[in-house]
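User: Quick sanity check before I run a bigger batch. Here is a single chain. Can you write out its predicted 3D structure?
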Amino acid sequence: MTDSEAIRTLRREFVARGWTRLPTGRTIAELALNVLMTLGGIAIILFFDNLALKALGLLISTCGSMGVGANTHTSSHDATSKRKWVNELLTYFGFPFFLGLPATYWWWDHVTVHHVNHNVLSVDDDFDLRPFFAITAPHVEQSRGFAKFYYRRLQIYFLPFALFGFSFMFQFVAWKYLLGCTFDRKQRTRRQILDLISLVLHYTVWLALPCIWLPFWSVLLFYVLRAGMMGYAQFMVLGPGHFPLEAELLESRPPAKDYMRFQTDTCVNFHTGPFGRLICAGLEYHIEHHLFPEISHVYYPQVAKILRKFCAENGYQYQTFSWPRAVWKCVEIFVTPKPLVARISERPASGV
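Assistant: Done. Predicted structure follows.
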């Protein structure tokens, strides 16, 4: 069976089972739960003086914020509603308004570039973290002098500190891209204007308005701590899909005829419980998401059962790990950088 035939066969079955219908109500209900979790965490911080409880509130708020981002990630793929304006509205809510991350950048970097070229070294910027880190064997080998020594021996020790700043760096890069599009008449569309309006509302709601009732430095401290904690959350939720050594890093993008194998060889899954599923919103089913981004994350647990069996029967790779093990595998590449392979493998199917 060719990759094209495999995809068509699976899609026909998913259509027959009704999994291409978009469960808008349930997706928005999950989004509301994550918003309430965020606000609940903030309430704990505001109404309790105990530092341990405040730390718990910050953790709860971070989990809710990650859940909002993951849930509206589904919307950014037009998989929340059949109405495009609903998907766009939710994307603006989750990314620029709630998290301060321009949606324009997300649509370009994640939806347009990443989903087509993930784990392709020359294209996927997710694997080029230089000069701070080198997580691929080619990047380590290209370095010289102290830089090579740092990448080989020391960078792992700086990772816990750098993750705190990851969200800020993400925002900086996204803002730079957004402004570049905004000031370029050829690229500027209504999306950039809506993005800027959403971002102004973000800073108004999260920084300006709270200062009416609270000291500025307290508001700023919470904003910085929440964004810093989001760096760890993003690493734990977004990293396991592609960072582990088991997700192959390619020299170039495979031809279209190898689409199915490309996705299954360069993505891995991790499994979690009900709470993890709420805040990950399908990102734990990374293989399913990359193969069928148009399907709502609500259906991924059912899709996974069929896909895993299909892969085992037809010689495709399908790997899944526990969430802690998947996160640890992300950390490992800062010690043992990912090797580069010339082409996707044709190894026997396996699962963990």
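Residues 347-352 have pLDDT under 50 and may be disordered.

User: Great, the batch can go ahead then.
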